[in-house]
Amino acid sequence: MTQPERRKTAHSGSMNGAYIPLVIMAGMGLSVEAGLLGPLGEEVGHLWATLSIFGVGAALLFLISLLTGKPAEHRSFSSLPRWQLTGGLLGPLYVIMLTLATPVIGVAMTMIAILSGQVAKSLLIDHFGWFGISRKRVGVQRLFALALIVAALILIAEGA
């Protein structure tokens, strides 16, 4: 199956609805992770806490990969453009920021600030079709949604 065919399959109407609750649960998991990382970072150091989280995650993914095998239709890493692997740099930076910010500003403030940044950048990525993503025009409704998230950030910050 080619990459465009995979994209069409991944974007089929009935599948979109199934992803939303799963992604919401994953987001809840990130809040739990932030709540765990803050105190862990205070106990063992922020970089060691980050390393431990990635070490456990890498070990789990390694085991899952061994059990499931590599699907034949996937390309090897050596044939990919190098810029696609830079996402691996962003994960640790994100987790370090969770570890540093959560004890200071709290889980709610950390998560809404992260959400603000994620949605703002996501709208740009969708609008311009960066990284091979199919373009999705950013209209008034999407900008209004971002404004509501920023308003939530301000309200949570003022209530802190």
From TrEMBL:
Per the UniProt entry, the signal peptide is none
A Pfam family matched in the record: DMT_YdcZ
How is this protein annotated for GO cellular component? plasma membrane
Q: Which UniProt keywords apply?
A: Membrane, Transmembrane, Transmembrane helix
Q: Which residues cross the membrane?
A: 20-41, 47-68, 89-119, 139-157
The answer to whether UniProt assigns keyword RNA-binding to this entry is no
Which named protein is this?
A: Integral membrane protein
